[in-house]
Specification:
51% of the residues lie in helices and 11% in strands. The protein is of the alpha/beta class and 312 residues long. The model has no long low-confidence stretch (mean pLDDT 97).
Length: 312
């Protein structure tokens, strides 16, 4: 079954089972999430900007860079991937091309927000939003492409109005009502400040909502989210934050202790599922690739490679 169809069925069933999607910023993290039994993956724009550009999410990543990252993830897993599509990277016409490209690289769904260009992470200060009717046009344009390309593709409409002067929660709810009417499958008010705000959004918009318990938003549990109408719970920084802390700590020790840090790391993690280098290779498909070699390479090539070779 196509990833878009899998995700569509999950969205249709959201009231009975909320979708939970951890953030993966690269294909290797996607492999880890799949190995651990997650059903859906999420690619954050902020995590993409940090991992691919080394910059904070300030609207510097282009559509091409985001889509290249998404393609690298969808190429390694059959799990549905929901991708951050920023503000569609332009007006309604740019949004049409953006949606078409995401569909064609195998992404199962995206969210588009109503920030002005250049945008920034939804939990940072300094956000501005475009007029409501302009965003409605983007949603309608996106829906037109989805009808042409793959009707199962999931469209999430996000508003960043909650933290914008003159808009606030009332403005966010008004906008999401319009976006849902225009054709969004789920709605997403970013940077909400309480469970009560999240509940109001779901109730007043009358649509399944997307939420992430990160940064300035409260750390609501999955159960709490489902109780107030959340259809999809995402953890955008799940991989990139954990990776950043772990790499910082290890490299700090490496700087102080050189090889002793490596030895201690291996000793401490010797029973971990990824505790040694060979296990990393195995997660990356080592056995699968070796089996393909046995199936497709000539015997003499295999003998030359493996007959007297040394290694893991």
């Amino acid at each position: 079954m196509k990833p878009t169809r899998i995700l569509r069925k999950m969205v249709d069933n959201w009231e009975r089972k909320m979708i939970v999607a951890p953030g993966v910023h690269d294909p290797f993290c996607a492999r880890i999430a799949e190995k651990l039994g997650f059903d859906v993956l999420y690619m954050s724009g902020a995590a993409t900007s940090m991992s691919r550009l080394g910059y904070a999410d300030f609207g510097l990543a282009t559509a091409t860079e985001s889509q290249m990252n998404a393609k690298s993830i969808t190429s390694i897993t059959d799990l549905p991937l929901v991708a951050d599509s920023d503000n569609g990277y332009g007006n309604a016409l740019n949004t049409m091309r953006t949606v078409r490209d995401f569909v064609r690289i195998g992404v199962a769904g995206i969210h588009i927000e109503d920030q002005v260009i250049p945008k920034r992470c939804g939990h940072l200060k300094g956000k501005m939003v475009i007029p409501l009717n302009e965003m409605v046009g983007k949603i309608m344009a996106a829906r037109e492409v989805i009808k042409e390309e793959d009707s199962d593709f999931v469209l999430i409409a996000r508003t960043d109005a909650r933290a914008v002067p003159g808009e606030g929660l009332e403005g966010a709810i008004k906008r999401l009502k319009a976006y849902y009417k225009a054709g969004a499958d789920l709605v997403f008010a970013d940077a909400l400040l309480s469970k009560e705000e999240l509940k109001r959004v779901g109730k007043e918009v009358g649509a399944p909502t997307v939420y992430h318990p990160t940064a300035i938003s409260p750390r609501l549990t999955a159960k709490e989210c489902q109780e107030v109408g959340v259809g999809m719970l995402i953890y955008p920084f799940a991989s990139v934050h954990a990776m950043s802390v772990a790499v910082w700590d290890f490299m700090a020790q490496l700087k102080k202790q050189d090889t002793r840090a490596q030895v201690e790391f291996e000793r401490r993690n010797n029973k971990h599922p990824l505790g040694d280098v060979k296990k990393l290779f195995e997660l990356g498909g080592l056995r699968e690739l070796q089996n393909y070699e046995k199936e497709f390479l000539p015997p003499e090539v295999l003998e030359a490679r493996y007959g007297k070779s040394i290694g893991m």
